[in-house]
Write a structure and sequence with these properties.
Shape: globular
Helix content: 10-25%
Structural class: alpha+beta
Strand content: 15-25%
Low-confidence stretches: 2-58
Radius of gyration: 22 Å
Number of strands: 11
Number of domains: 1
Length: 428
């Protein structure tokens, strides 16, 4: 919980005798079918720039542009809901995996534009499963964004095909003091982050990508999130976490290109050409001991964060966005320890969500923060900040990191002939 101050295409086939429109997908799957991705961009919805324009510009149910130099879902104005999934590879055939990425890209472009996958959920061959699962029929795009990332273990699966192409910065995160990581909620060869204002739209997207990938990838773990806990929109009030506090009140603005270039986007001289324009994602599942927290006094809660609970202002200040006076806070206050001035300027872009996943069998809520942080390099972003927090943060009495993963996020898809990860797999 690092506080940051900066921080239906035409098929071309004849109609079936039974009156059904023949599906372009064969009985073995729709994966080989070509999709008119370019048509998605002209589907009538007003696309919102990926750079993080205000939610008002998107409009209720609006569309976020899928194509661009960077993937959407990073600097994009943060949506209300999340479905995050990590996948394991089930094939060692690099060409088969590259084909899957092409299929996923085509499906993602359609779903983010509010269209069904392939020929849709009905009207195709009665003898075959529909191309789309159908639960998003009639729903608007809801600012759906889909963001893909590649884990360190991916590069071990294809031998010489990807030899030497794993960036040095893409390494498994170190074990931090206090970590109690669950293997079943950590790691993954790749991930997809689906954010939307309608939870059904986000779940539909992950479900359909998993379905397309059957036999080539399998879901390792997933996480639903509600209640965004950060904002990339200038001037917006910072949302509250499940402890009732605002955290990360000066997150990087999605329109601040200078800060994004400095702290989020991988540069041309950062090591691997295929990742230029991409980023690195750290995902941490942080359980909150809410029952213990709820019995702490208001003064203790405010001392732990270094903020007042009402306005969210730093100690001694009046507004949440006021510059904090770090020395006025207790030495182990969360804000003080996570501030860039305490960490040699380390800055990350936060996109976390709250979660509540039932109870733990002892009458306690399994609830907390699904922490998502994008940065140019985890070695100078998340890792040094978390090392300091893990050792000294007073908040550690009330939280525990139980899941962890890191991914390299490739640059955006630039046109209908491009696809997720193309530069990695086509590089020679």
């Amino acid at each position: 919980m690092a506080e940051q101050q900066s921080g239906e295409p035409e098929s071309g086939e004849p109609a079936a005798a039974a009156g059904h429109k023949p599906s372009r997908r064969t009985l073995l799957g729709w994966g080989g079918a070509g999709l008119a991705v370019g048509a998605a961009a002209a589907g009538g919805a007003v696309a919102v720039a990926q750079s993080g324009e205000s939610e008002a510009h998107a409009g209720a149910g609006g569309e976020v542009a899928f194509h661009g130099p960077h993937q959407a879902g990073i600097a994009t104005a943060v949506q209300d809901r999340l479905h995050f999934a990590a996948f394991d590879l089930k094939t060692d055939d690099a060409d088969a995996f590259a084909d899957l990425l092409k299929e996923w890209t085509r499906a993602a472009a359609r779903m983010t534009a509010g269209h069904a996958v392939g020929d849709g959920a009905f009207g195709g061959l009665a003898e075959a499963p529909p191309d789309d699962t159908g639960e998003a029929l009639g729903l608007k795009p809801s600012r759906l964004t889909l963001t893909i990332g590649f884990g360190p273990s991916l590069f071990e699966k294809f031998g010489e095909r990807l030899a030497g192409r794993r960036p040095e910065a893409l390494a498994e995160l170190p074990k931090f003091p206090g970590d109690n990581l669950e293997k079943a909620r950590s790691g993954g060869d790749l991930c997809v982050q689906a954010c939307a204002d309608d939870p059904q739209v986000a779940v539909h997207a992950i479900r359909n990508l998993a379905r397309i990938g059957f036999g080539r990838v399998a879901v390792r773990w997933s996480q639903l999130g509600f209640g965004k806990t950060s904002s990339t929109t200038p001037g917006a009030q910072t949302p509250r976490n499940l402890l009732g506090f605002k955290d990360g009140t000066r997150n990087i603005d999605g329109t601040d290109t200078a800060r994004l270039d400095k702290h989020v986007w991988v540069g041309a001289k950062d090591g691997q050409d295929w990742l230029t324009g991409g980023s690195y994602l750290v995902a941490r599942r942080i359980r909150m001991n809410v029952e213990t927290w709820d019995r702490a006094s208001l003064q203790e809660q405010e001392d732990v964060f270094g903020r007042d609970k009402g306005e969210g202002a730093p100690v001694g200040r009046s507004k949440e966005h006021d510059e904090p006076f770090l020395k006025a806070m207790k030495p182990d206050a969360h804000v003080r320890l996570a501030h860039p001035d305490t960490n040699d300027g380390a800055t990350i872009l936060r996109r976390g969500y709250s979660f509540t996943d039932g109870t733990d069998g002892l009458g306690r809520l399994d609830a907390g923060l699904f922490f998502l942080a994008y940065q140019r390099d985890p070695r100078t972003g998340f890792i040094p900040v978390q090392r300091r927090l893990a050792r000294h943060d007073a908040l550690n009495e009330y939280i525990q990191h139980v899941g962890s993963a890191v991914f390299a996020v490739p640059p955006g898809v630039r046109g209908k002939d491009d696809w997720w990860g193309r530069a990695l797999f086509e590089q020679r």
